[in-house]
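Bug #77: duplicate submission created two jobs. Keeping one. Sequence:
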Amino acid sequence: MITHHCKSVDLSLVSTDLPVWSVVETPVVLYQKDRDRFLLVLTTPSLKNCEVGNFFTPENISSQEQGHADVPSSPRVLWLEISPYRVIMTMQGNAQLSYRHLWEQGVSGTTCYWLPTDSQQQTKPIRLRNFTRSLTLSGHPLPEHLRVEYELWVGELQVGNYILNLNIKH
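Kept job's structure:
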């Protein structure tokens, strides 16, 4: 039986070797699917509220480069499917950048990005590989902290080491 809880979280993504970092503090809904599986749903701020310099993300940078920084956009929905063994993070972009990451401890997973387009046609995703060095989920009966350390690869080229941290406030 699915149960849900309203919580607040701090979600951060940091690169350990590139000038990339992003921090979001927001309310979430945490759904408990079964004993060890959870779905966390949150909204992220619209791009017009992000400032270059304290919120570096691919979405923000591409928006700034294309001159669309002042165009209002609706908040986007982020889903995190969490278990002690696997994490799937999906961002629905609402005509903005969308992505999906799949992380499993010690496994090369997939990372897909869908770029925004002016046409109504679906674009093919940009597929990258990630290697999950560490996946740690703590807290019982509800999760309190998630940490995923991973490498991102394009073919044979490593494009950074990243740490995703999620702190769920009870």
